[in-house]
Design brief:
This protein is an all-beta fold. The protein has one helix and eleven strands.
Length: 140
């Protein structure tokens, strides 16, 4: 499958570029961008990545869970990134009840995007939607 090019912008100095862990990995890991550790429980929490992206129109970009976290009882939800969203990328995580809690620290790998290449830019093009996300287009 051909890779799509995602333009990305660093929103905070400590934000890390999504990266492959091996040459043949299809996923580019997303990293937590935190000022202090975050303890997760059974309620979903949006974990910031410190980056915003712009994808080509008509392309389905999904944030996917990481199997390594899932194997430890930390669930990541699948999220679709619309081509007109320009706000910070978040990964929603929660723990299975038996785990209780889990600490996430700055730089931890928390999700992934597959089949993409990355181009860092100073600014992203503006859209009508802009940074409005996570239910901003309606709840129906």
């Amino acid at each position: 499958m051909d890779q799509i090019e995602l333009r990305w912008r660093r929103l905070r100095p400590n934000a890390l570029l999504p990266e492959q862990q091996t040459a043949l990995a299809s996923g580019y890991d997303l990293h937590a961008c935190l000022d202090e550790p975050l303890v997760r429980g059974t309620m979903p929490t949006r974990v910031p990545t410190g980056v915003a992206i712009a994808s080509p129109a008509g392309i389905d970009v999904q944030v996917r869970p990481r199997s390594g976290l899932f194997a430890r009882g930390v669930i990541g939800t699948v999220g679709t990134l619309d081509a007109d969203y320009r706000g910070e990328l978040f990964v929603t995580l929660y723990c299975l009840p038996d785990l209780g809690s889990f600490e996430i620290t700055d730089g931890d790998r928390i999700g992934q995007i597959v089949d993409a290449s990355w181009l860092e830019v100073e600014e992203l093009d503006e859209t009508v939607r802009g940074a409005g996300g996570h239910g901003s287009t309606g709840l129906r």
